[in-house]
Amino acid sequence: xxxxxxxxxxxxxxxDVRPGADLVQRARSATPTxxxxxxxxxxxxxxxRAMRGLRDRFSVAELEALAxxxxxxxxxxxxxxxxxxxxxxxxxEQHERLCEQAGLDDCEGLLRRVRELxxxxxxxxxxxxxxxxxxPRDQRGEEGWVGLGLRSS
Length: 153
Hints:
The structure is a single chain. By secondary structure, the chain is mainly α. It has one domain (29-148). Helices cover 61% and strands 0% of the residues. The chain is built from eight helices and no strands. It has helices at 21-26, 32-54, 60-75, 85-96, 98-102, 107-115, 119-134, 142-148. Helix 4 runs antiparallel to helix 6 (107-115). The longest helix is centred in the N-terminal third of the chain and has 23 residues, at 32-54.
């Protein structure tokens, strides 16, 4: 029986590995909290720079299509899967006719631009889509993408 619209995620940790162990090992002259604070500041700085690079790269209709294609990725807490952003969008086009559903004329252009995203831009895009999907429906659309910084006003 074929499965439609399925997301399969498998993350396994060996018994001797626990999340955050690397943080404790990296904390030599500083506390784990200080290291985590510094690393989180670096991460948000990376996201902010990547978001600036994403501004106006996609139309509102393209962003809506990307939100549809990447909604599962935006809600699943598996950052190691971010590298799959282009494949996920390409599969949505192949199996669900993403571009046709969204009324997009330049599907190849959209897929090319998604493939060209840096890893930081992929993180920023998925993060923004997660925030967008949390917005009330009346704040979505162009207003929502402008508020998130992906479109100019």
